[in-house]
Design brief:
By secondary structure, the chain is mainly β. It has two helices and 17 strands. InterPro entries: WD40/YVTN_repeat-like_dom_sf, WD40_repeat_CS, WD40_repeat_dom_sf, WD40_rpt. This is WD repeat-containing protein 88.
Amino acid sequence: MGPEEKAWEGDQEKLAKWSLSQDGLVTTCHISHDGKYVVSGSDMENALLVCNVEDGEQVAFIRDYHRSTIQSCRFDPVNQRIATVSSDMSIKFWDIIARATTVTIERAHNNAIADCCFSLDGHYLCTAGWDENIKLWDVRTGEFRSHGPITLDQGHIGIVGCCDFSKDGELYRMTVLWHQQREKLRSGCLPDSRLKRFLRAIKLLLLYNSN
């Protein structure tokens, strides 16, 4: 039996009614914003698993969904699409209603993609990569198809391991975690002058593009 995916009742601090076993490591999971679905990725089968939160009923199981480990999976704000990123450098969008992959972006980065997140309004998908880059994809209009993503490549020396948007609803302030050689994981709030300039540039860029 492989590692388990479990649903917990947080208020009662006890195991809920169901758990599922997957082969290999469960590398990522995310619950939809309406609390109806949970999605997870595993490394041995590079599989995507979508279940109902209430009873654990399987909605979809797709073996070899990516060619390598799924590093991150996220529901969009309206709970219709699931974005996944992988060590195979690709991004995929799986549609809950269509039960199908609707978009695949190959070679989205030049190395493994570590994380992804949607902006609060679902306009952008942000991806963080081992190629030291953060990229912003306009998934609302699909503009990236003709003009590519916005690439933010001046803020890091080393792997970018995590990314997120603020929830203030006014400015998309991005916080990032990154790994520098011979140093521990650090956070974007540390007094690094280059990173401060980088974060200010992100604020201005995203504010401009959200208008």
